[in-house]
Design a protein that fits this description.
About 10% of the residues are buried. This protein has a single domain, classed as 434 Repressor (Amino-terminal Domain), CATH 1.10.260.40. The chain is built from four helices and two strands. Strands 1-2 form a two-stranded antiparallel sheet. Helix 2 packs across helix 3. A hairpin with a 6-residue loop joins strand 1 and strand 2. It is about 45% helix and about 5% strand. The chain is elongated. The chain is mainly α.
């Protein structure tokens, strides 16, 4: 599921796998495997792809509606 989302974001930005891999500094073959869900991707790489495609990742608590991004966390909170 995440692979399809990453591919969608990249294509919306009109970037090839090669262009995106150069931007986020991974090899193109790894990006292809992530998008095709042949390899598990780490959160930092997901966030890099999202940010470079103009997306932000938010975590929303369904009950309280609290919303935050990873960058909002203070080290002592974790």
């Amino acid at each position: 599921m995440i692979g399809k989302t990453l591919k969608y974001m990249r294509r919306q930005k009109k970037l090839s796998q090669e262009q995106m891999s150069l931007i986020i500094k991974i090899n193109q073959q790894s990006l292809s495997r992530y998008e095709n869900e042949q390899r598990q991707i780490d959160f930092d790489t997901i966030e890099k792809i999202a940010n470079n495609c103009g997306y932000k990742i938010f975590f929303i608590n369904e009950e309280t509606k609290d919303k935050f991004q990873v960058k909002d966390l203070i080290r002592k909170d974790v």
